[in-house]
Amino acid sequence: MKKVLLTGGAGFIGSHVADLLLGRGCELTVLDNLSFGRREHVPAQARFLQMDLADRAGVMECFQAGFDTVVHLAAIHFIPYCNQHPDLACRTNVEGTQNIFDAAQSSGTVQRLFTASTAAVYPDCAGPIDETVARGPMDVYGMTKSANEEQAAILARRSSIHVSVGRFFNAVGGRETNPHLVPDILQRLKKSNTIEIGNTTPKRDYIDVRDMASGVMAMLEGNQSSIDTCNIGTGEVYDVAEIAAFISEIHGAPIELQPVERLIRKVERQNLQADSRRLQTRYGWKPKYSVQDSMRYAHEWYTNL
Ligand SMILES: NC(=O)c1ccc[n+]([C@@H]2O[C@H](COP(=O)([O-])OP(=O)(O)OC[C@H]3O[C@@H](n4cnc5c(N)ncnc54)[C@H](O)[C@@H]3O)[C@@H](O)[C@H]2O)c1
Fold it and tell me: Which letter does DSSP use for residue 129 in this model?
């Protein structure tokens, strides 16, 4: 890996992957339209292209730089936003991804490509989910990412690129750009210790964003097959009350959760828990940070905002 294109590198996970790529001595180009990401998240050593994935001609042209590796993370990611803007979600996540894949294939220089999928491609499952469970997305976002997995399979079949697909579970830490549970609680805590909340029972597999980034690198560097798909999660799940309790301990003040009808999502999985043995056994990946570490990192970042 020498010349790397990272899409979505101004975002939450992408900026952490950028840190690791630069640490490996890569010459890094970040492509991002800054719709959700922030320019200041992009490390100064990276070349920055403010570009939309939907700009097919622009994307094709930028591959003339001769990248050997692509990490494709740019997407519209927040589930309620995707449900409200299905056209934009499809244009960005599906059409935009096709532009990146086509450009990578026709470049003739790209040897490795990582693309971000999600736990949201899975159906509701009681226990840990492994990669053999058939996809069953329940929302627009999951549908677009499920389509990305089909697109990745076609790219792998029609090229000699080593394609890696990471199914991300719930990342937590600093530089988060979307109002997910943890940043939402931290943001509201600035005004009040009583937090209005929707569904409190769903359990999620929270993974430190730095461990997510190391999972991306493990697949990118280690995948020798035409295509491989791995969950990237810890295998531990927590519900909303448990997460609030962790934050309350770090914050040093009690948090009162106040369930509110209007915030309840009608379609919600009760449990999303990774079986990450494939990533661990094939690539030797292990999470380094505990759930409390990731909350501490997020808390520190939000307090200094
Ligand atoms: N955060 C999580 O817990 C999580 C879970 C599952 C999957 N993912 C996936 O991981 C990837 C990164 O997610 P994240 O949490 O860092 O989100 P993010 O929103 O912080 O990062 C996505 C980046 O893509 C950029 N972007 C969006 N539309 C674009 C477009 N049309 N052209 C160019 N750039 C565009 C945004 O500006 C942003 O910087 C996404 O593909 C997301 O679907 C994230």
Answer: B
